[in-house]
Design goal:
The chain is α+β, with helices and mostly antiparallel strands and about 775 residues long. The longest helix has about 40 residues. The strands form six sheets. Strands 7-6-11-10-9-8 form a six-stranded antiparallel β-sheet. Strands 14-13-12-17-16-15 form a six-stranded antiparallel β-sheet, with helices on both faces. Strands 2-1-5-4-3 form a five-stranded antiparallel β-sheet. The protein contains 21 helices and 32 strands.
Length: about 775
């Protein structure tokens, strides 16, 4: 037999199943026939034994064997038992037999199997020696077993450095960057390999970071996958690790993630200092080892800085500094003045308006709308590489976005300061302090980007020693809310001076908001308000609310009750009624009026806030100012998102010796008698200097009530900070001042009353009206 010269490796398809084995003697007679030969050629062993091989397989194998066959194979077409032709690869090898008789081993495999084997071998050789894919085999104990050429080249290792050792010994600084499905940081690489050996479940896309012996100063990044190797019975033999170097792609992705994260982190606040700090936090340590952000001092005040000059360099303030090296000293408190030498990169950056690079430093100006607001300095420490052009462009983009946010924060700070100043001017600096009540109050503007709101409160002295109490809340925030609050407060005060009942006052206010103040963008629409009137003579309170939270009433022993009042619609909706509710309010009761910003927050239910308010108010025996402080510290949210206002009012009653009243018959002849009674009472109170004025006032008001008003007529004197004279009758016609002609016999009564009293007016009741006049205690006798 003879074959073409085709060389095989030391291990080929003829050395492993399913190669067919045929043993021949020196004459080519079959003396051995394997089961694989039966399957390949179709002849049973008993048919083949003793037959010349050429008779069985054809003339292609009927030839004399070569003298030195060696490790050579040839491809031939041989006959199958069923008559068809089979293409096979044949390998003829000499055999030693007893007594030196020559024999031959004829090995045969199908060509398809040979080609598949050759492809497999080519793939294995390629993966081992040529591929850039890193392939590592680990044994079942997670130790290195074999590495391919790519691992040797990329890591700078040899098989002798690795085989038999654990990963942690070869790569002590390696770190897995991915997280598992539970959000828990992934285990070390050794534990991960052990898990694959134990479970047989493959793991893909494991991000791995480590410096390598060939480049110990820089981290490199790989993406690895792991799968278990096992024998034909499923027993684990080890784990195969396949991976790619993704350093360039990972760095590019990190830059993209840095730029993407800038939108959420840098632009999440309107506070310029926090914005600068967010830039520094974003860039350290991934992008730079040191970041410093300096802003011009006018920017921190909310002002727009002027053109850059040499003197402007003295206006720089360090507002943020972050460093990755923990051994460096911590930054001093910010903001603080900072000065640079004239030839340093920072002044050149601001002077020229563009980035300046120096060694491992990049200085980028913060510019918005053509105006320099400050600068940012990025620095890397050795052995990190300097910033490349792409990284400089990334720094410029980050700073550009920061500059826009800083400018927005500057504008907001300016508007916030103006709105706060406006609101401060519109709110009462000192509330009225009527004798019938003690008052304490607190107001805290909202924190954060929402800005100043429109909460307000007021204490309004009314006729008859009564007191009007009001608290309100304008929807929205900012300058317009503050302005709207101012006109709401002024309007309420004007309506309260008309002595309107609470429900009527809110109805009038609602009409004004809906008709004259209304508009699609008018923040007066949706205002809430609560108005109450306390009468210290009757120890009675009447109140109504327009969508506002009800007040709390605190008894002297600390019991707290949130009043159950009809809610009423917010102002501006129009056409819906308001309802007044009256209740007794004995002396020393505490009335707490507040806005929703005190008890409500986005992350806290209002019921929780009301319970905290009850607890803070329930401690008896404290001064009002102390109670105010306690409530604000205990109830107010940590970072209030809305304005919060609190008005505490402790009520007092007028004693019996401060009030005198008489029911009058509708008889003009009785005027003199009751005038005398009033004069006597004023004298008893020790105010003789006011006797003559009271005498005239009582005479005029009682006479008008009997003549024009009708029954029932009632006279009441109240001694408060002044002397108050009230005459009630059953009429509903309001008196008015008029000029009497010289020949007129009457018509001068109210004119005289107006001239001799401090103030006077009319209020209406369900049963008629009351004319009142207040006489100061230092009144001089009239001539």
């Amino acid at each position: 037999m003879s074959f073409e010269s085709t060389k095989l490796g030391s291990c080929g398809p003829f050395n492993v199943a399913p190669s067919a084995a045929v043993v021949l003697d020196a004459r080519g007679t079959v003396i051995g026939w394997s089961p694989a030969a039966e399957e390949l050629f179709g002849y049973a062993s008993k048919e083949a034994l003793g037959s010349p091989v050429g008779d069985l397989l054809g003339d292609t194998v009927r030839a004399a064997p070569p003298q030195e066959p060696g490790n050579m194979y040839a491809v031939r077409s041989v006959l199958h038992r069923d008559g068809r032709t089979v293409r096979v690869a044949l390998l003829l090898s000499p055999l030693e037999q007893d007594e030196g008789v020559a024999a031959w081993l004829l090995s045969a495999v199908g060509v398809a199997h040979l080609e598949q084997w050759a492809s497999d071998q080519a793939v294995l050789r390629g993966l081992s020696d040529q591929s850039s894919i890193l392939i590592t085999l680990y044994d079942t104990q997670s130790r290195f077993k074999w590495i391919n050429t790519a691992v040797e080249k990329q890591f700078g290792l040899t098989a002798e450095d690795c085989v038999g050792r654990y990963v942690a010994d070869v790569e002590p600084h390696g770190e897995i960057l991915v997280e598992d499905g539970d959000g828990v940081p992934a285990p070390g690489l050794q534990r991960l390999i052990e898990r694959v050996v134990r479970t047989g479940e493959p793991i893909t896309d494991v991000r791995y970071r480590t410096p390598i012996p060939a480049d110990p100063q820089h981290d490199h990044f790989w993406s690895f996958c792991y799968f278990r190797l096992q024998d034909h019975e499923g027993r684990p033999l080890g784990v195969c690790e396949a991976g790619l170097d993704i350093t360039d792609r990972y760095v590019a992705r990190q830059r993209l993630a840095l730029l993407s994260g800038a939108g959420g982190r840098i632009g999440g606040t309107l506070d310029v200092e926090r914005t600068a700090g967010n830039l520094a936090d974003l860039a350290v340590p991934e992008f730079a080892d040191l970041v410093q952000v300096d802003l011009l001092e006018p920017v921190l005040r909310g002002e727009e800085p002027g053109p850059w000059t040499d003197k402007t360099a003295h206006d720089l303030r360090r507002v943020a500094e972050r460093v990755a090296d923990h051994e460096r000293p911590a930054a001093a408190a910010s903001p603080r003045p900072i000065e640079y030498p004239p030839d340093s990169p920072q002044p050149r950056c601001l002077a020229h308006g563009h980035s300046v690079t120096s060694d491992q430093v990049v200085v980028v100006p913060l510019r918005a709308w053509g105006t320099a607001l400050g600068l940012a300095t990025f620095e890397r420490f050795p052995p990190r590489d300097p910033f490349d052009p792409e990284e400089i462009a990334l720094a410029e983009e980050l700073v550009s976005r920061t500059a826009v946010c800083v400018d927005n924060g500057r504008r907001y700070a300016r508007e916030h300061a103006i709105a706060l100043m406006l609101q401060h001017d519109l709110l009462p600096h000192r509330l009225a302090q009527p004798a019938a009540v003690e008052v304490a109050h607190r107001y805290l503007p909202a924190a954060g980007p929402v800005g100043v709101g429109g909460d307000w409160y007021d204490v309004i002295p009314l006729s008859g020693a009564r007191v009007g109490l009001v608290v309100g809340d304008v929807a929205g925030h900012g300058m317009r809310a503050a302005v709207t609050m101012g006109r709401m407060r002024t309007t309420v005060a004007a309506l309260a001076a008309m002595d309107l009942a609470p429900d009527e006052l809110l109805a009038r206010l609602d009409d004004l908001v809906a008709q004259s103040l209304g508009g699609e963008d008018d923040q007066a629409v949706g205002v809430t308000c609560l108005y109450a009137i306390y009468d210290p003579v009757e120890q009675h309170c009447v109140m109504a609310r327009a969508g506002h939270l009800p007040p709390a009433v605190v008894a002297p022993d600390g019991r707290v009750e949130i009043l159950d009042l009809p809610a009423g619609p917010p102002l501006g909706l129009g056409g819906l009624p308001f309802e007044s509710v009256g209740f007794d309010l004995p002396e020393d009761r505490l009335l707490a009026l507040f806005t929703d910003g005190l008890v409500e927050a986005r992350d806290r239910d209002i019921d929780i806030g009301l319970n905290e308010l009850r607890d803070a108010l329930s401690i008896p025996g404290r001064q009002l100012e102390e109670t105010c402080d306690s409530v604000m510290s205990a109830v107010l949210p940590k970072f209030p998102e809305d304005d919060a206002a609190l008005l505490l009012v402790r009520v007092h009653a007028l004693s019996d010796d401060q009030v005198a009243s008489w029911d009058l018959p509708v008889d003009p002849a009785e005027v003199a008698r009751f005038r005398a009674l009033a004069v006597q009472k004023v004298a008893e109170w020790g105010h003789n200097e006011a006797v003559s004025v009271i005498e005239l006032v009582v005479s005029e008001l009682v006479t008008n009530a009997i003549r024009y008003g009708g029954a029932p007529v009632r006279l009441r004197l109240i001694r408060d900070r002044g002397l108050i004279c009230e005459v009630s009758d059953g009429g509903h016609t309001s008196p008015h001042l008029r000029w009497a002609a010289q020949e007129d016999e009457g018509g001068r009564g109210l004119f005289l009353v107006a001239q001799l009293t401090e103030r006077w007016g009319t209020r209406y009741t369900p049963h008629g009206k009351t004319i009142w006049a207040e006489v100061p205690l230092d009144a001089r006798p009239c001539s």
